[in-house]
Specification:
Distance between the termini: 130 Å
Strand content: 35-45%
Radius of gyration: 58 Å
Number of helices: 14
Helix content: 10-25%
Oligomer: single chain
Length: 938
């Protein structure tokens, strides 16, 4: 405890004795080399009529249209030192080269050299640092000479002083320049005229020469400001004379409202009033990227652009927004703010700080309050501070801790007793009481121990409490506010991340990601407020914290806007207003956003590193013009090419991938332009609003299209929309000529189809007739076939009969021959025994009767009658067959066995088998095929 107390005391001492240097500065936008994609140094800045900006950069001409940076490399790959816009030309100068750029039809800049005409006159190593516009002449100034270009005659006049040049100036429609050792000169009628050779003009380098209040204001590099009039030189005193002793002036610019901007080499920039009073001093510690300012420029919207030694910065000098940025981390994240008794109090995670409300003074720390401050509440002439260490009362710039039991979130007036004050704590709700004009802690309300970050009163003895992780509670108290009699959790609406609850216009509102809900005391239920909830439908929810200001406006934050609702003067309906500052720019702690009304029209928004102030009555957005910057077309998977912006586009069928780049040249840090587009011919409705400044359409079908785009800044839509008309040609097979040919071919095809159908139907008719005739013929044939079948059956029957007869006849012959052979054999035996001639005669007669040739001839005739072509077929198949082979084939055709064939051939059975074997060989039959099978198959 002692150690913590010592640590606490030391921190308090440090904070209390160290005031924070505070200056609310206009918004500053920083552009690094990574963002703009070019070199570090930027030597000069210019702007054209379309509000596009140009920078003389180390790498070349750098262009910024508010959305996209484009680098055009230096014409000879040297550092670009100067740039000036005159009409539609952008004049630039660099090492041994000067000329101009003009935008072509495709929206790209093209360079034309002027120095080529006077190449012989350019001194070696000459660089062109300044370009001046004077009537119809353009003056290119180097450190050696002046090249005066006549835009009418396109001729040059060269002015070469005896000694080197330091700088040229245009003042009061006159051209002046300072030489190194001769003094100040004026150009009259194309010739140099010495104005002053006073030692002042010889020993001092003049950064700028201008006219203020009828006299020359001379700005020197090292010795500050002087007034020159009637050949007299006098010191022009300013608030920053002492500060300039340790730094040198590099650039100077008088703004349109008469204020003076000064860029230094080592201490950032200064902004002075026209009488030399310091308005701003902005250096690297206070917000700009670098302390070396190489160039200054005021654009059409009175923004100051700084070309730095390392980057580019833009200061929105006329913005109604001012920022206090704590680079030291001493102030920390701002959670609460309030104006109390002429002091501006800031509650942060580091403690409580204050300063005089209307002064540019420093912030001072309220001793004893180091730690987290959650909220500030002014009541009964006292300032109450809700702190991580409990509750503090701030009186006479000193803090008194009156409650230490737990951290305190917020305070709420008691609904009926003005001497009581409710406070939401980490572990419930407690009561503060005013006794003898002194506020003190009275009691904790028992029976409810949940964190009470947000709570509101519904009546005499009821509270609604929002707990981010547990939901919304309805609490009923006893009469003396010492005990909770009953509490219930609402089933609707649900709990939600960063949910918030507040009372607005005597109604309790609860907000979370699903909308904003209003409490109905009669039904004791929440109901969704459709009007307020539309905000979360139009813009992304980030926090439900609700805040009410002194003007009875309801404030809350969404992703892209700061929203407020108020009652109209002639209507009871809530009016929705927005400040188009996205959450990424407000830089507030999510769930702990805070906005405080510190005067009638001035609001303070806490950020993670300080705060912003907004003068809402001065918040005005110009009706900027939108431009189509360029259009790129390409085939699928091919490189893109730029197309003309001034003519309607006609593209080939495969060039149907089109990218449009558009922009609003607006450079306000806290305002994002939003875009909406429509492609007539493809879309029927406008797209949703988006901050993307380009759109790509892929694989567009052939046809005519009109692309339209418009912009919105805040609720102000751009004065006009930009449009581009183009057409994608049909492929050759879909062209008008092709369609005409298709029509002709169609009619020709119809003609031939009709003719073919006629021919077809005629053929079908003829075919039908032919078919009927064929059916009749078939019928007749079927009849004939039936007759043939019957006849064939009869023939087959006859054939079988004859075959049987042939077989019977053959068998008879076989039997007869067998019998005669037996008789012959018996007679031979008898003849051999008796030698009887009569027996031999009988044997001879028998031999004649069993003559196989005769038998074969009879058989052959009978066989041919039955099977006419068999012998011819087999002879044709096998020409090598002998008559005996044919005879054996005929017997086998009758399916006779070898035993049955032997008598017919008058040989033995063995001989028949041999004949069959030889027959197979002649027929060359395969081994697996049977001889009889083969013969029967013929």
């Amino acid at each position: 405890m002692l150690r913590n107390f010592i640590h606490f005391s030391l921190l308090s001492l440090i904070f209390f004795t160290t005031p924070l240097l505070a200056q609310d500065l206009p918004p500053i936008t920083k552009y690094s080399t990574t963002e703009y994609g070019a070199g570090y140094q930027n030597w000069m800045i210019a702007q054209d009529a379309d509000h596009f900006l140009y920078y003389a950069n180390n790498e070349g001409l750098l262009e910024f249209d508010g959305s996209v940076w484009t680098l055009y490399p230096s014409p000879n790959e040297t550092i670009l030192r100067s740039v000036t816009v005159i009409g539609e030309r952008i004049y630039t100068g660099c090492y041994m080269e000067f000329g101009y750029w003009v935008r072509n039809k495709k929206g790209r800049l093209e360079y034309t050299s002027l120095s080529d005409k006077v190449k012989a006159k350019i001194v070696d190593d000459e660089q062109f640092w300044t370009i001046l516009d004077f009537d119809h002449w353009v003056i290119f100034q180097s450190l050696n000479q002046l090249f005066v270009y006549d835009t009418k005659t396109e001729s040059f006049q060269i002015i070469s002083p005896k000694s080197g040049l330091f700088k040229a100036y245009i003042v009061n429609n006159s051209i002046y320049y300072q030489t190194v050792s001769e003094g100040l000169f004026e150009i009259e009628n194309g010739k140099s005229k010495l104005i002053s050779n006073d030692s002042f003009f010889i020993t001092n380098k003049i950064v700028s020469l201008s006219q203020v209040k009828g006299a020359f204001l001379v700005i020197t590099q090292f010795n500050g400001f002087y007034s020159y009039s009637d050949s007299k030189i006098m010191k022009w005193k300013t608030d920053i004379d002492q500060e300039l002793i340790s730094s040198s002036i590099y650039c100077f610019h008088i703004l349109r409202d008469g204020t003076i901007a000064i860029g230094t080499v080592s201490n950032g920039i200064y902004v002075l009033s026209n009488d030399g009073k310091k308005i701003y001093h902005i250096n690297q510690n206070k917000g700009i990227s670098n302390n070396t300012a190489l160039s200054l420029f005021e654009d059409h919207d009175s923004n100051i652009w700084i070309g730095l030694d390392n980057g580019i910065n833009c200061i929105n000098l006329k913005s109604p927004i001012r920022s206090y940025v704590d680079k030291t981390g001493v102030l920390g994240t701002v959670y609460a703010s309030i104006v109390h008794q002429g002091k501006l109090y800031i509650g942060t995670n580091q403690g409580l700080f204050y300063k005089n409300q209307d002064a540019l003074g420093d912030f001072n720390f309220v001793n004893g309050t180091n730690g987290q401050v959650w909220s500030l509440f002014s009541h009964d002439g006292k300032l109450f501070c809700a702190h991580d260490f409990g509750t503090f009362i701030i009186e006479n710039l000193a803090a008194k801790n009156i409650y230490t039991s737990s951290g305190t979130w917020k305070f709420l007036e008691h609904p009926t007793n003005k001497n009581l004050l409710l406070q939401g704590n980490y572990y419930g709700i407690s009561v503060l009481e005013k006794v003898n004009n002194t506020w003190r802690y009275r009691n904790k309300i028992s029976g409810f121990d949940f964190s009470s970050k947000y709570f509101e009163s519904t009546g005499s003895d009821e509270l609604i409490v929002s707990h981010e992780y547990k939901g919304v509670y309805h609490i009923k108290m006893n009469a003396d506010w010492t005990k909770v009699l009953q509490y219930d959790t609402f089933t609707f609406p649900e709990k939600g991340k960063n949910a918030g609850l507040t009372k607005f216009n005597s109604k309790i509102y609860y907000a979370y990601k699903n909308g904003i809900f209003v409490y109905n005391p009669k039904t004791k239920q929440f109901k969704k407020d459709e009007n307020l909830s539309k905000v979360f439908e139009k813009d992304e929810y980030i926090s439900g914290k609700l805040m009410v200001d002194h003007s009875d406006k309801l404030w809350f934050f969404t992703k892209n806007y700061i929203n407020n609702f108020s009652f109209g003067k002639l209507s009871s309906e809530l009016k929705h207003s927005i400040i188009p500052i996205p959450s990424s720019m407000t830089n507030s702690m999510l769930g702990y956003e805070n906005i405080t009304q510190i005067s009638n029209a001035l609001y303070l928004i806490g950020t993670t590193d300080g705060y912003n102030t907004i003068a809402v009555d001065d918040l005005y957005f110009n009706k900027y013009r939108i431009y189509i910057k360029n259009i790129m077309v390409n085939k699928q998977n091919d490189l893109f090419h730029y197309v003309s912006l001034t003519e309607n586009g006609t593209f080939k069928p495969k060039e149907n991938n089109i990218t449009f780049n558009f922009t609003v040249p607006e450079y306000n840090k806290y305002v994002n332009a939003e875009y909406q587009y429509l492609l007539e011919g493809l879309q029927e409705d406008w797209s949703s609003w988006s901050t993307e400044s380009n759109v790509n359409f892929k694989n567009l079908n052939p046809g005519s299209y009109v692309f339209k785009v418009r912009a919105k800044i805040g609720s102000t839509i751009s004065e006009s929309l930009a449009s581009y008309t183009f057409e994608i040609d049909k492929p050759w097979y879909s062209s008008n000529l092709a369609v005409l040919l298709y029509i002709i071919l169609f009619f020709v095809l119809v003609y031939f189809i009709n003719k073919s159908y006629k021919r077809y139907y005629k053929k079908q008719q003829e075919k039908l007739i032919e078919e009927n005739n064929r059916l009749l013929e078939i019928k007749e044939l079927e009849t004939e076939q039936e007759l043939m079948r019957i006849k064939n059956q009869q023939l087959e029957h006859d054939f079988e009969t004859k075959n049987k007869e042939l077989a019977a006849s053959t068998m008879t012959l076989i039997k007869k021959n067998e019998l005669l052979t037996l008789i012959k054999e018996d007679l031979k035996k008898t003849s051999e025994a008796n030698q009887n001639r009569s027996i031999k005669s009988v044997i001879s007669t028998i031999s004649k009767n069993i003559n196989e040739e005769d038998t074969w001839n009879v058989f052959k005739d009978a066989f041919n009658n039955v099977d006419k072509d068999f012998l011819k077929k087999i002879k044709a198949e096998h020409s090598s067959l002998t008559p005996n082979d044919l005879r054996l084939c005929a017997y086998l055709r009758l399916n006779l066995s070898s035993k049955e064939i032997a008598p017919l051939l008058n040989i033995s059975v063995r001989s028949v088998e041999i004949k069959r074997y030889r027959l197979r060989k002649k027929m060359d039959l395969p081994h697996e095929q049977g001889l009889v099978e083969y013969i029967l198959s013929i």
